[in-house]
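Supplementary Methods. Inverse-folding protocol.

Structures were first reduced to a discrete structure-token string of length 166. This string, shown here, constituted the complete conditioning input.
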């Protein structure tokens, strides 16, 4: 494997990010990626990194910091961790996750977490091999299935508070 370059993602990475997100199971229109990156860049405590090999983006991960009521330090959350199918098993994911962990620590996080779909058994083993432990169960509710009901509810909206990680 040639040396990996880990760097921040940019708008020119849109085609590669679209390809990678599709492999992860989240088909994404290339044209939408630059706006997504821009929105994320305006949110404090959020970054997207890519792994590049021989000028080709072969992996990505996004990292988010957020504050909780139960702790004073920010928590870090990994999302969209994916390595190109042709580059798996060669250390790309390990290097990206290590870099994400360093970023999280440098930004004050004392903990880093992620979720992974139940069917991704190989990914679970990867994370365990890199010191991650299963500490709970994630439950999700897809709002698209309940939007009509929510729109019909007669309640006053709650205020939104922007948190800005240090």
């Amino acid at each position: 494997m040639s040396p990996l370059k880990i760097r921040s993602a940019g708008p020119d990475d849109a085609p590669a990010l679209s390809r990678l997100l599709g492999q992860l199971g989240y088909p994404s229109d290339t044209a939408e990626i630059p706006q997504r990156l821009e929105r994320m860049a305006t949110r404090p405590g959020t970054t997207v990194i890519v792994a590049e090999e021989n000028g080709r983006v072969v992996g990505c991960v996004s990292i988010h910091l957020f504050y909780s009521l139960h702790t004073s330090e920010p928590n870090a959350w990994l999302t969209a961790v994916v390595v190109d199918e042709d580059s798996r098993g060669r250390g790309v994911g390990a290097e990206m996750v290590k870099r994400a962990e360093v970023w999280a620590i440098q930004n004050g996080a004392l903990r880093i977490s992620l979720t992974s779909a139940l069917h991704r058994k190989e990914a679970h083993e990867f994370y365990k091999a890199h010191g991650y432990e299963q500490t709970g169960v994630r439950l999700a509710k897809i709002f698209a299935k309940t939007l009509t009901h929510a729109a019909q509810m007669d309640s006053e909206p709650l205020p939104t508070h922007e948190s800005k990680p240090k």
